[in-house]
UniProtKB/TrEMBL annotation:
Organism from which the protein derives: Methanolobus sediminis
Record-linked Pfam families: HypA
Entry protein name: Hydrogenase maturation factor HypA
Molecular function GO labels: nickel cation binding; zinc ion binding
Function field: Involved in the maturation of [NiFe] hydrogenases. Required for nickel insertion into the metal center of the hydrogenase.
Membership in a protein family: Belongs to the HypA/HybF family.
One of the GO BP terms on file: protein maturation
Taxonomy of the source species: Archaea, Methanobacteriati, Methanobacteriota, Stenosarchaea group, Methanomicrobia
Residue numbers binding Ni(2+): 2
Protein backbone atom coordinates (compact mmCIF):
# COMPACT_ATOMS: atom_id res chain seq x y z
CA UNK A 1 0.00 0.00 0.00
CA UNK A 2 2.03 2.94 -1.28
CA UNK A 3 -0.65 5.37 -0.09
CA UNK A 4 0.79 5.11 3.43
CA UNK A 5 4.26 6.29 2.39
CA UNK A 6 2.70 9.11 0.34
CA UNK A 7 0.52 10.12 3.30
CA UNK A 8 3.63 10.12 5.55
CA UNK A 9 5.37 12.50 3.16
CA UNK A 10 2.30 14.76 2.99
CA UNK A 11 2.00 14.81 6.78
CA UNK A 12 5.73 15.55 7.18
CA UNK A 13 5.26 18.58 4.92
CA UNK A 14 2.16 19.72 6.81
CA UNK A 15 3.94 19.48 10.16
CA UNK A 16 6.99 21.30 8.79
CA UNK A 17 4.86 24.15 7.41
CA UNK A 18 2.89 24.37 10.67
CA UNK A 19 6.12 24.56 12.69
CA UNK A 20 7.63 27.19 10.35
CA UNK A 21 4.55 29.35 10.94
CA UNK A 22 4.39 28.75 14.71
CA UNK A 23 0.94 27.20 14.35
CA UNK A 24 -0.99 26.15 17.44
CA UNK A 25 -2.92 23.69 15.32
CA UNK A 26 -4.01 22.70 11.85
CA UNK A 27 -7.69 23.16 11.04
CA UNK A 28 -7.76 21.52 7.62
CA UNK A 29 -5.56 19.93 4.96
CA UNK A 30 -6.68 19.87 1.33
CA UNK A 31 -4.97 17.39 -0.98
CA UNK A 32 -5.45 17.16 -4.74
CA UNK A 33 -5.28 13.62 -6.12
CA UNK A 34 -5.12 13.16 -9.88
CA UNK A 35 -7.32 10.46 -11.37
CA UNK A 36 -4.31 9.05 -13.24
CA UNK A 37 -1.95 8.81 -10.24
CA UNK A 38 -2.80 5.23 -9.27
CA UNK A 39 -3.51 6.57 -5.76
CA UNK A 40 -6.72 5.48 -4.09
CA UNK A 41 -8.38 8.60 -2.58
CA UNK A 42 -10.14 6.58 0.15
CA UNK A 43 -6.90 4.91 1.22
CA UNK A 44 -4.90 8.13 1.33
CA UNK A 45 -7.74 9.73 3.31
CA UNK A 46 -7.63 6.86 5.84
CA UNK A 47 -3.83 7.12 6.15
CA UNK A 48 -3.90 10.90 6.62
CA UNK A 49 -6.67 10.64 9.22
CA UNK A 50 -4.58 8.11 11.13
CA UNK A 51 -1.33 10.09 10.87
CA UNK A 52 -2.87 13.39 12.02
CA UNK A 53 -3.66 12.10 15.51
CA UNK A 54 -0.20 12.37 17.09
CA UNK A 55 0.92 15.85 16.05
CA UNK A 56 -0.09 19.50 15.54
CA UNK A 57 -2.72 18.45 12.98
CA UNK A 58 -4.72 16.41 15.49
CA UNK A 59 -8.41 16.71 14.61
CA UNK A 60 -7.76 18.53 11.32
CA UNK A 61 -10.34 18.09 8.60
CA UNK A 62 -8.91 16.18 5.62
CA UNK A 63 -10.31 17.19 2.23
CA UNK A 64 -9.52 15.22 -0.91
CA UNK A 65 -10.10 16.90 -4.29
CA UNK A 66 -10.00 14.65 -7.30
CA UNK A 67 -8.18 16.19 -10.26
CA UNK A 68 -9.47 15.06 -13.64
CA UNK A 69 -7.39 15.20 -16.81
CA UNK A 70 -8.32 17.35 -19.76
CA UNK A 71 -8.87 15.31 -22.90
CA UNK A 72 -7.17 16.85 -25.93
CA UNK A 73 -7.16 16.04 -29.63
CA UNK A 74 -4.66 16.99 -32.33
CA UNK A 75 -7.48 18.81 -34.14
CA UNK A 76 -7.68 21.26 -31.21
CA UNK A 77 -10.82 19.90 -29.53
CA UNK A 78 -10.63 19.76 -25.71
CA UNK A 79 -13.03 18.34 -23.15
CA UNK A 80 -13.05 18.02 -19.37
CA UNK A 81 -12.17 14.43 -18.50
CA UNK A 82 -14.67 14.50 -15.64
CA UNK A 83 -17.46 14.19 -18.20
CA UNK A 84 -16.14 10.76 -19.19
CA UNK A 85 -16.51 9.40 -15.67
CA UNK A 86 -20.27 9.74 -15.41
CA UNK A 87 -22.75 7.57 -17.27
CA UNK A 88 -26.41 7.93 -16.31
CA UNK A 89 -25.33 9.81 -13.13
CA UNK A 90 -23.18 6.85 -12.02
CA UNK A 91 -19.43 7.28 -11.67
CA UNK A 92 -17.11 5.00 -13.62
CA UNK A 93 -14.08 4.55 -11.38
CA UNK A 94 -11.65 3.05 -13.88
CA UNK A 95 -8.45 4.56 -15.21
CA UNK A 96 -9.18 2.89 -18.57
CA UNK A 97 -11.96 5.47 -19.00
CA UNK A 98 -9.31 7.88 -20.28
CA UNK A 99 -7.83 5.47 -22.85
CA UNK A 100 -8.95 5.13 -26.45
CA UNK A 101 -11.35 8.09 -26.30
CA UNK A 102 -12.51 9.14 -29.75
CA UNK A 103 -12.74 12.84 -30.58
CA UNK A 104 -16.33 13.85 -31.35
CA UNK A 105 -15.03 16.40 -33.88
CA UNK A 106 -12.68 14.31 -36.03
CA UNK A 107 -12.71 10.73 -34.70
CA UNK A 108 -9.01 10.63 -33.77
CA UNK A 109 -7.89 9.19 -30.44
CA UNK A 110 -7.69 11.89 -27.78
CA UNK A 111 -5.00 11.98 -25.09
CA UNK A 112 -5.20 12.92 -21.43
CA UNK A 113 -3.38 16.01 -20.22
CA UNK A 114 -2.94 16.36 -16.47
CA UNK A 115 -4.54 14.20 -13.82
CA UNK A 116 -1.16 12.95 -12.58
CA UNK A 117 -0.94 15.39 -9.68
CA UNK A 118 -0.65 14.58 -5.99
CA UNK A 119 -0.37 17.94 -4.27
CA UNK A 120 -1.09 19.69 -1.00
CA UNK A 121 -3.52 22.35 -2.20
CA UNK A 122 -3.92 24.16 1.10
CA UNK A 123 -3.27 23.98 4.82
CA UNK A 124 -5.44 26.04 7.17
CA UNK A 125 -3.49 26.67 10.37
CA UNK A 126 -4.40 28.25 13.69
CA UNK A 127 -1.88 30.73 15.07
Amino acid sequence: MHEYSLACEIMDNVISIAEENAAKGVNSITVGVGRLTHVNPDQIMFCLETLREDNVSKGAQIIINEIYPEMQCECGFCEDGKKLCFVDDEIIDDIRTFLDVQCPQCGQTMHASGGHELVIESIDIEQ
